[in-house]
Amino acid sequence: MSQYQLDYLDQLESESIHIFREVAGQFEKPALLFSGGKDSITLVHLALKAFRPGKFPFPLVHIDTGHNFPEALAFRDQLAEQIGEKLIVRKVEDTIKAKHLTEQKGKFASRNQLQTFTLLDTIEEFGFDACIGGARRDEEKARAKERIFSVRDDFGQWNPKLQRPELWHTYNGKIHKGENVRVFPISNWTELDIWNYIKRENIQLPSVYFSHEREVLEYQNALIAVSPYIQIDENDKISTRRVRYRTVGDMTCTAAVASEAYSIDDIISEIIATRTSERGETRIDDRFSEAAMEDRKKNGYF
Amino acid sequence: MDLLRFLTAGSVDDGKSTLIGRLLYDSKNILIDQLDAIERSSKNRKDGTVDLALLTDGLRAEREQGITIDVAYKYFSTPKRKFIIADTPGHIQYTRNMVTGASNADLIIILVDARNGVVEQTRRHSLIASLLNIPHVVVAINKMDLLNYDQAAYNHIVEDYKKVAEVLKLNNVSYVPISALVGDNIVDASTKMDWYQGPILLDYLENVEVKSSVNLTNARFPVQYVIRPQTEDLHDYRGYAGKIESGIYKKGDQVVVYPSGVEATIEKIELGGKEVEEAFAPQSVVLHLDQDVDISRGDSIVKKDDSLKVGQDIDAIVCWMDEKPLTVGQKYFLQHGSKVVPAMVKEIKYKLDVNQLEKITEVSKADLNEVVEVKLKTASPLAYDAYSEIRESGGAILVDQTSFVTVGAALLQ
């Protein structure tokens, strides 16, 4: 490589920082959707690179389903405090009460679908015109189709058949009142890119990403953490296993993987060796139908 | 490791999505659960084979119709290189999505169905490749299995395409006979085409020199955002944040700020919060100047350079992407780098006929998917380059002033 050629991680980093600054330049009231997972933690790290020594031109916003891992919540609060940025938390629980929403029933009743209601209410409450999220195109086939600046109508809906052309690195963020844009700065990163970057930049993560002992329920080849949010039946097989989380979503719909990975290097080795995709291995919410993600996005989900 | 961005193009049913599926499958970049999912969906196919196109056709409407509507991005790597693939639609009505996928590509694979040869969409996509200045073109002549791997048929198509390449002045064109369906010459060499001596597709993709589209000679930096912490200890901090579009900036360089024309010197360059002596495209950095100049988003910090153009009368080749036609006298927003200016179409100089690849004059409008050259008048001066010189500083989009939709890709001349 010549002196003036960038390594792929530097290329991805620069592309993401550029996207962050476009959001700052084009929108009045952006927000960074922060979940406490590795992708949104990487977003925060990139935002620090984009805006320091200035403040972020947006708050961190967490839509709390009430089913989060306590480790991720503690990490969220600690990170927000450490970087001195504003954190807004809105709870799905409150939306359920206020709007009399019907919760899913069953063994792994998930609030995944309901969080869209809280998200849209929060967007309206603060008048957010752009919401930055950590979705990646390699995660899922509907996400592979979405633009970096994805315009949503006033119901938050994505219209996959009518996306704006997006050329070069020119992002068109012009919208009408009531519409908002979802912005995905790490669209072009893969799971492995994220881990390599976390290693290179020495980014800290919640402990659930590393191997630990946990009481889990084995269900259709998935290991689900025992928690107050799932229904445990008499014949369920519960055991204590050494596991880690490959993704961190709700405790009700995120499966752990058996793992002995105690360091970032161990995790990278496991990911290189794995023959299963990130969401396929860990998200039971995507298994509903072939178009589960597309359908949720059309309804305002990320 | 380096990165190659490429796209697949070609007419409907030429096998673009199947080719990508095959590349990922044969290079072991498909994971078990993804394969399980497409095997389940392929079950209703008569012949019982796995439909590899389902890997990239991610929308319900696409799977229902068996076509690609919008560009899908796929990521894979081999020990030699990382790849970002844009799988783009073949239907003429979705050409704008093909242009989206092509705009950042270093290489284009144009698929040709060996039974049909060079058709209108082959020419259209080749024209777009030529206009967008994609550095490498691979013509993959597909479905060779259906023609019993006939060398004469292959040669005939190669000869035909060479004429197109000549008219369009395409450089670095390679040809490879393949079958995406059965996997000939994609990751593994075909046993049925001994007459073909060239590299198979993956070898080519792994080894082609990524002729970087980044220009390191002429330095361009559009200001995206001004960082001003205004805290006690950083009271005088004023940093101009942006991504270097082209060229190299060094501490001490003399620069000119556009559109004001004010001259200044680079006092400090920050990269990821650390001070550096120099920075180059495409790094995202913060520049500091030695004097307080009025600079805001949309301004450019440029090294003194003869090739930069500054003006309000701009010629542009426009790929039109909207149902509503482009007409003379109409006003649009021109978004160029971090700047947005109103621009009016003063004149349509000609339209490109895709089939004959000739210029048609005396046209009054451009319809969806047509390519025209126009004269634009911008409301304020723009500092820009010819697209053929610097892609980042010569590419702009036209945005409808009321729907706010991106309606055209403008290649400034």
From TrEMBL, chain A:
EC number, as in UniProt: 2.7.7.4
- For this protein, the parts annotated as crossing the membrane are none
Q: Where do the Phosphoadenosine phosphosulphate reductase domain residues begin and end?
A: 30-255
Pfam families (UniProt xref): PAPS_reduct (PF01507)
Q: Which GO terms describe its biological process?
A: sulfate assimilation
Gene3D superfamilies, A to Z:
HUPs (3.40.50.620)
Identify the keywords attached in UniProt to this record, alphabetized: ATP-binding, Nucleotide-binding, Nucleotidyltransferase, Transferase
Q: Which family does it belong to?
A: Belongs to the PAPS reductase family. CysD subfamily.
GO MF entries:
ATP binding; sulfate adenylyltransferase (ATP) activity
Protein name in the entry:
Sulfate adenylyltransferase subunit 2
From TrEMBL, chain B:
UniProt cross-references to SUPFAM superfamilies, sorted A to Z? EF-Tu/eEF-1alpha/eIF2-gamma C-terminal domain, P-loop containing nucleoside triphosphate hydrolases, Translation proteins
Molecular function GO terms recorded: ATP binding; GTP binding; GTPase activity; sulfate adenylyltransferase (ATP) activity
Q: Where is the Tr-type G domain?
A: 1-214
Q: Alphabetically, which GO biological process terms does the record hold? A: sulfur compound metabolic process
Instruction: Name the coiled-coil region(s).
Output: none
> Keyword annotations for this protein?
ATP-binding, GTP-binding, Nucleotide-binding, Nucleotidyltransferase, Transferase
Enzyme nomenclature, EC number:
2.7.7.4
Give the matching InterPro entries: CysN_GTP-bd, CysN_II, CysN_NoDQ_III, G_TR_CS, GTP-eEF1A_C, P-loop_NTPase, Small_GTP-bd, SO4_adenylTrfase_lsu
**Name by which UniProt lists this protein:** sulfate adenylyltransferase
Q: Which organism was this protein described from?
A: Arachidicoccus rhizosphaerae
